[in-house]
Amino acid sequence: MTADLRVLIIEDDFHVGRLHASFVDGVPGFRALPPAPTGAQGLKAVHAEQPDLVLMDVYLPDASGLDLLGNIDVDTMMLSAASDPGSIRTALRRGALAYLVKPFAAAELQARLRGYARYRRLLAESGTMTQARLETAWQALHPGESGAGAKAGTATESAVMAALATRGEQSTAEVAQAVGISRTTAQRYLSSLADDGAITISLRYGTTGRPEHRYSVSAR
User: Is residue 76 domain-shared with residue 151, that is, in the same domain?
Assistant: First the structure.
């Protein structure tokens, strides 16, 4: 079993920091470190804790998160109420993997985190990096780039996770019935969630002797 990806939140608002930490802890395979309320404490935590990912605000009491981007050699996503194009361009130019404008729903950040986990796995594979795999890794970081269908996809994914969380271990057919989608669509989402590590797959043999895949939420 691999260790959880550790996430440092640099956020001056105590309540927002705690809220975002709960969003992170809600994703299997991720663990939030204690939030840092200032840029200086954030830099200290980065050096001491060596997190896998930083979630950082632009507005900090002692520094700009945009300036800190150039001082930390860690994967970083910006979470900020700063919605002006200049801030967003600067963040992306300085290496931010994503930029989420506050306020946002838990599902939006959690989708980004699952995409980040997939991105890490793709870039951790051995062998030469092909352009196709590079594009797949990039798209994993930006789940909304495919257009209008992306929001529906996120809602469906959340519904699939909710069905598994409330009903326990289920088959593809049972998930499809619970969510109100086709078996093909359910299988596509289940496979994607399994790739992300959000759910686990087990085999159960029925009366005919044929194995059936069963899905459940991954234990933390």
Answer: no
- In this structure, are 102 and 168 located in the same domain? no
- Residue written as token pair 């994607």: 192
Output the pLDDT for position 56.
Answer: 97
pTM, entire model: 0.68
Q: For residue 187, how far is the Cα from the chain centroid?
A: 20
Domain end marker among 107, 135, 160? 107
Query: H/E element holding 119?
Result: helix 106-124
- Which residue range forms the structural domain that includes residue 36? 5-107
Question: Is beta strand 30-32 parallel, antiparallel or unpaired with respect to 53-56?
Answer: unpaired
Q: Residues 203-216: what's their mean pLDDT?
A: 76
* Token pair in block for residue 111: 């989708």
Nearest-angstrom CA–CA distance, 22 and 17: 9
Which residue from 144, 169, 145 is spatially nearest to 157, judged by alpha carbons?
Answer: 144
How many other CB atoms are there within 10 angstroms of residue 84's CB atom?
A: 9
